[in-house]
Design brief:
5 helices; 106 residues; 0% strand; mainly alpha
Length: 106
Amino acid sequence: MMQTSWADLPTAVRAAFVVLGAVQIGVEAAALIVLARTPAERIRLGKKWPWVLIILFVNLIGAVVFLAVGRTPEVAAKEPGAGVAGETMARAAKMLYGSGEASDDD
């Protein structure tokens, strides 16, 4: 079996390895940050520690799996109409249509 040193690789191959390594580290760091900021009740599998192991030891695939399916949507985790989107819609409706209370001028 022939071994090739890092210096013997073509420049394009070395650049590709560096870029792929940076992407992997970036995606894993982003997944760990999202995991740390996500409330425990929104985490699938019930606890955060299994996801830490998956993200760290399954490398890029583990981080992508967590970001894709590891969390429940914010709105689904709360009451219907709750969350930032629900509050924004309620404020917009109040601005457009008023508070909903009957006035004496009618």
